[in-house]
Amino acid sequence: MKAGIRQSAAWLHSWGGLVLGWLCFAIFLTGTLAYYRQEISLWMRPELAQTNLFDPTALDHIADDLARTAPDAQMWQFNLPDDRHRTIRVFYTDAEGTYHSSLRDPGTGQILYPRDTEGGDFFYRFHFELMFAPTPGRIVSGICAMFMLVAIISGIITHRRFFRDFFTFRPASNPQRSWLDGHNILGVVGLPFHILIIYSGLATLMFLYMPWGALVAYGGDRAPFFTEAYDGAPPNEPAGEQAEMVLLSDNLLRFQNSMADFTPGRLVINHPGDANATIQVFASETDGLSVRPGSILIDGVNGTELSRRFETSTVRESWNVIYGLHLGRFADPVFRFVLFVMGLGGTAMVGTGLILWSVKRQRNGAFGRGGRIVHVLNVATLAGLPLAVAVFFTANRLLPTDIAGRAGYEVTGFYLAVGAALAYAMFCPARRIWRDLFALIAGLFLMLPVFGGILGFQGGISDLSDADTVFLWMDISMLIAAGASGALAWRLHVKGNRASYR
Amino acid sequence: MIDTKMTGFPDVIQAFAITSRVILAVFGGYAVAAMIAVLLSVALPMPRVDATLFGMLISFIVWAAVATAVFLVRRTAVAWLMTLLFVAVPGIAFYWLQAGGDI
Q1: Of A13, A260, A339, B71, which shows the fewest CB atoms inside 10 Å?
Q2: For residue A173, what pLDDT is reported?
Q3: Which of A11, A154, A203 is closest, CB to CB, to B68?
Q4: Residue A493 phi, psi dihedral angles, 5° rounding
Q5: Is residue B54 part of a domain?
Q6: Which of A3, A213, A318 sits opposite B7 (nearest CB)?
Q7: In what order do the strands lie in the sheet with A264-270?
Q8: In terms of residue numbers, what domain contains B92?
Q9: Rg of the Cα trace of chain B?
Q10: Would you put residue A127 in left (φ > 0), alpha (ψ -120 to 50) or beta?
């Protein structure tokens, strides 16, 4: 590495980018989709379009139901409906600590049985766990994120004329220059977003990535650290005696009415039905940047307020805000769309970088041996993942709603689509692959709104209530995705028989 | 597929230099970041939960900086020495603090 700093940085950027770029593309794409996690979930469970309005007494019905059906539960959690959630999401842990969850009608508290699907949660989890088990997956995505930080630094060093190139785009020039210009523009325009989103992503999982400080400062037992870091209530032990609980609805309304700027978002009931039961009312995350805006702890039996926490230390608040910025739960529809577009820009930045790598090393339209592998993997991710998303949605619409393991089949469809794109790239001449796959993606996205209409899933455009607005925008988005993929496929078709990338 | 034109070194030395720097960037960078996080968690004059969180938040910036620096230094030996130094300095400071502040 005798050559200059710029050459070393360029080497690091292009080879590191090659090794981790495919995973980074998957992380960026699914993370971008996860901005619309709730909307996708609703679209994939059209049965939930008609739910009742929220009535706090539904919480009391749920509490009665859980006390009867799960008397050994250690903890209940009720996530309340808001602008983006139209059900009460109920979680509880049984005596063995196993999680159970259900969706409940916000008006009656009855369990809802929509079609079995992971919905938008699939993209959310795939975003940081990829196709691996949770812990290894999170470590792999952490490595990707760290690399992307280094890639950004080395990319800036590599970039000779940072601001002049900002205004340089040569679409009709030779392919290598156009891909490079595209990659640079996307990288430079999105730079503040990329730095923020990558760093905050690392911060969301930092207890896993960097546990050493907590282990040393807390002498090996991290439980008190977690309690303090989350501003949690100190753990309380069950008394072992049964006791009548206060009505949840009364207490919810009590705080909602007495505190002007307090929107309850979540209730956590510890040791329900026990004499030492507590109820913690958490403020909704949608009102501010922080992911932990505060909570009130009350006695579960007599309703007295035990403590409240709305202020925290500067460091903890900084961490909560960095965390909240990554999740974007505070975003209103317009800002959410801006975040989504910036996410797409980041996805495209990684994608153009990968194509650039391939184009740069082509000689007269031919790949070397290594270049062939890169090409196949490029197809499997850059075209395979969008295809997988389309197949995932299509499976949701076409699979019968009553088959066992339905959610698993949708996910299988997602992976099969990536595998199919990979196989197609291996056995098909390079010049046809991109055109064919994007034409297929366009076709699927074009059909999706039609499936919804034909099979009568939607409430209809005539009634523009909230739910229908979500379905309408999902349909419009799919048509836009279809149009973009179709235009790309058409352009590749017209360009015809020249080399495989241009 | 390593492009020797980029550095002008023969392949074997080139491969050694690259492997060694990747190891340094990933594990060396992590070691420096972890050491700084540990030092800050006990050294900062604030409640230990905040000191610990602050150390964690800073550590990723440290890691990225070390990983980049390792690739920008001209000589591999210097990259190793530099990383060792970055681990050693906070490491010594930490043990000095743990020993009660005086030796």
Answers
A1: A260
A2: 63
A3: A154
A4: -70, -45
A5: yes
A6: A3
A7: A99-104, A88-93, A75-79, A264-270, A278-283, A295-299, A305-309
A8: 9-98
A9: 17
A10: alpha
Q: Which of A6, A148, A149, A150 to mutate to test the interface with B (most CBs of B within 10 A)?
A: A150
Q: Rounded to whole angstroms, how far apart are CA atoms A67 and A175? A: 66
Can you give A445-479 as a three-state secondary structure string? HHHHHHHHHHCCCCCCCCCCCHHHHHHHHHHHHHH
Q: Which residues of A touch B (CB under 8 A)?
A: 1-3, 5, 7-12, 143, 146, 149-150, 153-154, 157, 199, 202-203, 206-207, 209-210, 212-214, 216-218, 225, 228-229, 313-316, 318-319, 322, 368, 370
Tell me the Ramachandran region of residue A161: left when phi exceeds 0, alpha when psi lies from -120 to 50, beta otherwise. beta
Residue range A379-391: mean pLDDT, rounded: 97
Q: Is residue B32 part of a domain?
A: yes
In a domain, B83, yes or no: yes
Token pair belonging to A265: 């978002």
Alpha-carbon distance values, A245 to A64, A273, A274, A304 (Å): 10, 6, 8, 12
Report CB contact under 8 Å: A149, B52. Answer: no
pLDDT higher than threshold 50 for residue A459? no
Average pLDDT over residues A57-72: 93
- The model's pLDDT over A84-130, given as tens digits with 9 standing for 90+, comes to 888 999 999 988 888 999 999 999 999 999 999 999 999 999 999 99
Judge whether B103 lies within some domain: no
- Report the domain count for chain B: 1
| Residue range A472-485, pLDDT digits in tens | 888 899 999 999 99
The domain ranges of chain A are 5-47+120-204+332-495, 52-115+232-311
Facing residue for B42 by CB, picked from A153, A217, A225: A217
| Cβ B3 vs Cβ B57: under 8 Å | no
In 3D space, the residue among A41, A35, A43, A30 whose CA is nearest the CA of residue A474 turns out to be A43
Instruction: Examine the predicted complex and report whether its ipTM is higher than 0.85.
Output: yes
Q: Chain A: nearest CA to B87, how far in angstroms?
A: 14
All residues at 6 or more sequence positions from A279 whose CB lies less than 8 Å from its CB, including other chains: A246, A248, A251, A267, A268, A269, A297, A298, A299, A300
Using alpha carbons, list the distances in angstroms from residue A434 to A365, A415, A429, A438, A488: 15, 19, 10, 6, 9
pTM: predicted TM-score of the whole model, two decimal places? 0.91
